[in-house]
Amino acid sequence: MNFLVMLFMLICSAVLQAVAPSSPLLGEARIPLLLSVVMYYGLARDLRLMVFAGIVGGFFQDALGLLPLGYSSFVYCLVGWAMSRFKDIVFVHEAVTHMLFGALGAAAAVLMMYGLISMAELQAYPFASALHKALGSFVLGAVVAPFVFIASKRLDQWVGNVQEKESSW
Amino acid sequence: MFRERKLVIGLILAVALVTVLNLPDTVRTRMEYSLREGLAPLQSLIANTAQTVSQVVLLIRGIGGMASENRAMAAELVRLRSEVRYLRALEGENIELRRQLEHRSRLERELISCEVIARDMSGWWQTVRLGKGRMNGVNPDMAVVTPSGLVGRTISASDHTSDVLLISDPSSRISAYIQGRDERPVFGIVVGQGVNWRGEVMLRMEFINKNYPVNPGDEVLTSGLGGVFPKGIIIGYVEKAHRDRSDLYQYADIVPTADLGTLSYVFALVEGDDPEDALLREHRRIRNSVEIR
């Protein structure tokens, strides 16, 4: 059931992320829905599920875009792993923790992807634009991640994957 | 025991990740196309719903001004009808002159209307995905236009979807010419510059002859060289011309005529049976197959 819920969340996120518009004010950054799902598994569930979500989520992102297959999987797994390492840091308000993790994770993913794209010379992208995109992702991550976390958690509780008290946060 | 099991699972997943990163091209392409095909109906459904919602919102907002808009449209209709009559006469004259000169028309090209179902997922490229693919006659390397002007070219196609690289993408290069006040055209390359923070699409025409007088408002059209874009499709207008740093050429900022930010329907141009086009297509096919090998 864990994998079914994960797949459902990833497919919904992939479709919405592809259709949702982006804002030039935020550096044309895409809404980090897929990454938020991966971060949820990194923060609230075990590492095994996170890596699986990272690989599949990254595969969705790459297959539906122009990135070579595997780039996003690598970045997602790295961000998810970092989340799971620092998940014990909890602020007084749960929402603040979610916002901070979402923002930092999304911005870090953009910068890592920029590094990979530049190294592979896939796209001539100015660093200033990448920084602008990272800032945009920071904002979007802070806004979107808490909602994705809550939705994923509720769905997991609803189907019985996790108990009310089992949550890490 | 539990730790060992976790380690084994972790190792298996790590191997899976490395495998995904190093898949052979054929397997990778097949996987990508399968996923694209599988998710295309969902994307199309969401795009349609979003469009319906925005149309309903526009309708509700426009109810107040409908009467005046109706009057304006009726006047516009009368003007357009008279223009069509005039253009029909011109077209007849044009056909007759061409027939006398035995000149074949290059403008008779089939258009395939396509719905835009998604934009690039990653945000690193300026692309859109269309809801039509090889089964509908949309293949890679086809020009994509709107009634306002050039949009881009198709770069890949699965059975029911295709990806379009927009002219605003930094990797987009189009051979073009400026049709200025001087009758003599001047050639150059139109390069995408992305989108600025105000959401304006930025294009630049490079390698323009430095002695040619480029003026703001001059039309920029496709030259037909390169094989993908037919000659004479409007790209945009010159906004400002600058002298190149090397002082050998000049470059110009171009404002595109097509609104790339709000694309919902576009047209893919089917290549005609022009022998020159066919030759170039074959040349590209051979070159691509050599590059892949």
Structure notes:
The complex is a heterodimer of chains A (169) and B (293). With 169 residues, chain A is mainly α. Helices cover 72% and strands 0% of the residues of chain A. Chain A has helices spanning 2-19, 33-44, 47-63, 71-85, 94-119, 127-159. The longest helix of chain A is centred in the last third of the chain and has 33 residues, at 127-159. Chain B has 293 residues and is of the alpha+beta class. Helices cover 38% and strands 29% of the residues of chain B. Chain B has helices at 2-21, 25-62, 66-101, 275-292; strands at 111-119, 127-130, 143-146, 149-157, 162-166, 173-179, 186-195, 201-209, 219-222, 234-243, 249-256, 265-269. The N and C termini of chain B lie far apart (48 Å). The mean pLDDT of chain B is 80. At the A-B interface, helix 1, helix 3, helix 4 and helix 6 of A face helix 1, helix 2 and strand 1 of B.
- Number of DSSP E strands of chain A: 0
For the biggest sheet of chain A, the summary is: none
Greatest contact between two chains: A-B, 49 and 44 residues
What general outline of chain A do the C-alpha atoms trace?
A: globular
Number of helices of chain A: 6
Rg of Cα set of chain B: 24 Å
Judging from the principal axes of the Cα atoms, what is the shape of chain B? globular
Helix content of chain B: 25-40%
What fraction of the residues of chain B are assigned to beta strands by DSSP? 25-35%
Order of helices and strands of chain A: HHHHHH
* Order of strands, widest sheet of chain B: 1-2-5-4-3-12
Structural class of chain B: alpha+beta
Largest sheet descriptor of chain B: 6 strands, antiparallel, barrel
Which regions of chain B have little confidence, pLDDT < 50, spanning 5+ residues? none
Q: First CA to last CA of chain B: what distance?
A: 48 Å
Distance between the termini of chain A: 22 Å
Q: Provide the structure class of chain A.
A: mainly alpha
In round numbers, the mean pLDDT of chain A is 86
H and E string of chain B: HHHEEEEEEEEEEEEH
Which whole number gives the mean pLDDT of chain B?
Answer: 80
